[in-house]
Structure formats: C-alpha cells, structure tokens
Amino acid sequence: MARSTATDKRFLELKSGKWRVTVAVPRDLHGELGTRLKKPLHTDSLAVANVLKWQVVGELKAVIEQTRKKNGGGRDPLIREALEIAAIRSRAETGEEYARLNDLNLEIESRAEIIAGKDPDAARQYAEIAHGQATPIDLHHETFVTQSKTKARTQADDRRAIAYLKQWCEQNRVRPMIQAITRKAAVRFMDDLHKVAGGHSPITLNKYLGRLSRYWQWLVLREHAELDPWARLKIQAPPRPHDEEERAFTDAEVKDLLEGPATQRMQDLMRIGALTGARLDAIVDLKVGDCEGGIFVFKPQKKETKPRAVPVHPDLEEIIKRRTEGKEAGDDLFPEWPAPRKVGSQRERSFKASNAFTDYRRSVGVDHIVPGKRRSLVNFHSFRRWFITKAEQADQPESIIAAVVGHKRKGMTLGRYSAGPLMEQARRCVEAVSLPTNFQ
C-alpha cells in the first residue's frame, strides 16, 4: 500500500524547520562523497516535500553512479578490457605463454585501430594500458588501503587524496596514469591542491600529500612505479604569530573549570587529564584493568608503538576506587562515553566527550578565540600542556616528563610495574604536580 504524503519521510530530513533530501552513499565512495548526499527543498510542508523529492533523489543517485563509473567499480569497459589484457601479459611465464603474446599484440593493435576511428585519445590509452605501458593511478589503491591496516580516519584521508588527484588530472588534462605523475606533475598538483581540496589548512593539505607518498612507496616496492614523485613535497605554512598558538591552561582557568558546575564524569575526566598529561582519547578508552596497582596503562597514541604506564597521582586514587569497585577488568572506566557503534566509524571514542568538554568549558568562560581562527587556543589538550608546564616548574627531569606524557625519547621505558628506579622517578614527577589550591 502506498504511503501517505503526510507521513512518508523516506529520503527526507528536517533541517532548521525545512525539509531536505538525503541519500546514503555506498561505503566505497565515502572518501569522495561523504556518507550522505543532501539537497534542500526549501519547504516546511511534508506533503510538498514528498512531491518534490523524487527528482532530487534521482539527481543525487546519478551523482553516485557517475562517481562510481570514474572509480574501479564503474570503470570504462575499454579500460577494463585493456587491464585484463595487461594482466594476462604480466602473468606470462612459460615459453608457450610468451609466444602467445605476439598474437595478443596483433589483437591489441587491431582493436586500437577500430577505436581510433571514433576516439584517437581512447585508442592510445587502450593500447598503452594493454601493453602495460600505462596504469590507472587508482588501480591498486584499494589494495594499498586494505593492506596498510591504518585507522578508518587515515583510510578516509587516503581515499580523499586519490580522489583529489584524479579530479586535478581531469581538470588539467593530465592523464590519470601512474606513469604520468612525474615530479613536475606532482609539484603542480601540490601548488593547486588548495583549489581542489577547498579551504583546508597547510597541515591538512600536507597530510594528503603524505598519504599519496605512502601509496607511491607501496607501488615502488611492488614494481608498479619506478619512483615516488611526492617525496619531501610539503606546502609551506605562513608564519603564525606567537599569540595564535594553542596553549596550556592558566592556573586560574584550571580553578574555574574545577569549581564550575561540572558533572561527576566531567570532573573525573578533567582531573585525570590534569594529573597525568594524557590525551583525551587515551583516558576515555581506559579499562578497569588498566588502572591496577597504582598505575595507569594508556593505549598507544600518535607515534607511540606500545602502551604507556603512568603512576596514579594520590589525588586520583578516590576516582579510581569509585570507578573500578565491583567491576571486571574488561569493563570501561568511563562507560558514559562508549565507543562508536557504527562499524568502520572514523570517529574516535572521545568524540562526544570532547564536545561535552567544549560546551562545559565555554559555559564557565574558559575560552581563547582569535579573529579568523576557527579553533580556540585552549581545549582539553591544554590540560596536557598545563601538566608538562607544572612538572617543568617543579624541576623534574625533561627525560622523565617525556616518559610520563609519551613524548619521543631515546632508550627509556617505564614498563608497567611499580618497582624500579625509572618508575619511582616517574612517580615523583607525577606527584610534583598539584591542582590549584583547594582543589585537590
């Protein structure tokens, strides 16, 4: 039975009181199109929206199909045929198989002549791919992404980077082939990347260049490319004034945060951040078993290669006791902020905790906005900076501070045991930091 236009909300959602069309994007195209395509209908009437939506749904689905056609799943039939022929050539091992390649070469030339009658450029591309002289830049990309075993967010960066490169090739009449991406072409792409990718910061744009470099290194190792044209390419960021750098909290700001009307979970989160210097995601991801024997065991973050042990500050013992009592080792220390349920989600577990802290921080007047800069100069990471500052002011050795917060250091590991001189030094370092007066 047909659904009533007064209740049918398929492909529709409300945004600021107006209806808009929303269409899910297949997972393999998330890197290029995002998770959903959306278009406003400029009406607050559900009945009218249901009349208007179908043409828009068709348009958005056409965008998806067009994008898929440009990718491997919808590759042009001629290119697919040429790739299959190239695969046959690459697998030849015996004398008999090599002898057959002569007949195959004649077939390639004959097929190319027929294609040239309609499209000389397509004929040239067909012959080059079939002879193994040209390889689409994205042919091996999904295999690279799968084998890299990186986080979902990094994989999304990989897919965006190759999508930007393909888009740039199309706009600049550069053949989207591995062999066509020379050092000169790579430099041109770097100079144009801000136009293709939009208004991202140099840090983000350099991240895309770095992911392309990793892909080409993978290609070189497997002899799909001769060299990495992206090596050492980096967009220079404009000088940033000293007063626009993100900073540590002041003692007054820490006091304002701790004496404000925070929930118990937010109080616990802030205190652990301030007295360990740990990153937010590492704290939120703690298990009960990671807090045993007076030691935190934080998961590896950034460039860390293994879990990091940090002594529990005496002022945190009550929090740990309250949050671990009667629970199993595998239970979450902060069940209030569970991991994303969606499989393959690019969001870190701390995503909602970060948003909650930002809202709370602003509510108590702790903020530092610079005109023209989207992000505040203070955030949860400012607790980490505050901890390091306080440890330095307490004359703690730089190497021990680095060991506690997980900064790069040489030849030093604390392990996860309370005994030993390094752990005792780390304990002295942690206990040298105190929360502002009256907030222990």
| Rg, Cα atoms, Å | 28 Å
Number of strands: 5
Q: Which second-level CATH architecture of the largest domain applies?
A: Orthogonal Bundle
**Helix share of residues?**
40-55%
The level 1 CATH classification of the largest domain is Mainly Alpha
CATH names the topology of the largest domain as: hpI Integrase, Chain A
**Count of spatially separate domains:** 4
Low-confidence stretches: 416-420
As laid out across the biggest beta sheet, the strand order is 1-2-3
Instruction: Return the string of H and E elements.
Output: EEHEHHHHHHHHHHHEEHHHHH
Mean pLDDT: 86
Task: Kindly report how far apart the N and C termini lie.
Answer: 65 Å
Count of alpha/pi helices: 17
Family: Belongs to the 'phage' integrase family.
Keywords: DNA integration, DNA recombination, DNA-binding
InterPro entries: DNA_brk_join_enz, DUF6538, Integrase-like_cat_sf, Integrase_catalytic, Integrase_recombinase_N, Tyrosine_recombinase_XerCD
GO molecular function: DNA binding
Structure description:
Mean pLDDT is 86; it is low at 416-420. By secondary structure, the protein is mostly helical. Helix 6 (141-148) runs antiparallel to helix 7 and helix 16 (398-405) packs across helix 17. It has four domains: 12-70, no CATH class; 74-130, no CATH class; 141-221, no CATH class; 251-431, Intergrase catalytic core (hpI Integrase, Chain A). The strands form two sheets. The protein has a three-stranded antiparallel beta sheet with strand order 1-2-3. A two-stranded antiparallel ribbon has the order 4-5. The longest helix is centred in the first third of the chain and has 25 residues, at 46-70. The protein has helices at residues 30-33, 46-70, 77-91, 95-116, 120-130, 141-148, 152-171, 183-197, 202-221, 251-259, 264-276, 280-284, 317-324, 351-363, 381-393, 398-405, 421-431, and strands at 12-15, 18-24, 36-40, 295-298, 308-311.
